[in-house]
Design goal:
The chain is α+β, with helices and mostly antiparallel strands and 254 residues long. The chain has five helices and 18 strands.
Length: 254
């Protein structure tokens, strides 16, 4: 018993040292040189290893701000030595490594969101950086930059997200204005690549429209997202509603 008490005392006195040692052991880090930038969220490091940046989703080639996102990342880390900090899963389904890129003590992934070149993206569930990504996204909204730029369509002030039922994969938008709102070519997107287009839809004054998964017949009250599986992940997701110019109307997370 006495020996046990002494061990506890020694552990308590050296807790900071032991704790730091454990953290260094548990965390998975690697120092690498960045050899190529594929796009805003994918890089190539030593031994032709492809790395997908965790926590972000930047525009694909052909989409607005693709070049800006790629150029921003290139200007910071190309031909630089960075630290890769791995998360809960080290590889994605394409065999790419998944990591946060740390350069000069800064999380580059977070900077990309703050500058408006990406939305945050957590398909495997929220991690320790989630709250910081949310903070940076809101900061970007305040600065009205790139993907965070607010729509100037008069109906952007009318449309509200009335229901976000991710369990039943249904959402409802409400038009609070006393005039009709054309939502032609407006889009809904999740944190990833799933996208829905309203095509030539008009939401009546003080009206509602539900968007549900399935292959039903569209009407003025319900539109169907033609998917067989799901859109909204149970571990957490975000809805981004954008106008025909790609400008942000509203967003909502859970």
């Amino acid at each position: 018993m006495l020996i046990g008490i002494l061990i506890l005392i020694l552990f308590a006195l050296n807790y900071k040292f032991v704790n730091n040692a454990v953290i260094e052991f548990v965390n998975d880090y690697e120092e690498v040189n960045v050899e190529r930038i594929i796009d805003g969220d994918t890089i190539v490091v030593g031994n032709n290893t492809h790395v997908r940046l965790l926590g972000i989703n930047t525009p694909e080639k052909g989409e607005e701000y693709y070049s800006e996102a790629r150029n921003f990342l290139e200007s910071i880390i190309l031909n630089k030595t960075v630290r890769l900090e791995y998360g809960k899963e080290k590889y994605d389904r394409y065999g790419r490594e998944l990591a946060y890129v740390i350069y000069k003590g800064k999380n580059v992934n977070l900077e990309i969101v703050d500058e408006g070149y990406a939305n945050f993206y957590f398909p495997s569930g929220k991690d320790k950086y989630y709250s910081q990504f949310m903070k940076n996204w809101k900061h970007c909204i305040g600065n009205n930059k790139y993907l965070c730029e607010k729509s100037d369509d008069k109906c952007s002030e009318c449309i509200e997200l009335k229901l976000f039922d991710y369990k039943n994969q249904e959402i409802v938008f409400y038009n609070k204005c006393n005039f009709e709102c054309s939502m032609k070519e407006w889009t809904i997107k999740d944190e990833g690549r799933k996208k829905f287009s309203f095509e030539n839809f008009v939401l009546g004054k003080n009206g509602e429209v539900k968007i549900a998964l399935g292959n039903g017949t569209n009407s003025k009250d319900i539109l169907f997202w033609k998917r067989k599986d799901y859109v909204w992940t149970l571990t957490g997701d975000t809805l981004f509603l954008r106008d025909e110019k790609g400008r942000l109307v509203l967003w909502g997370s859970y």
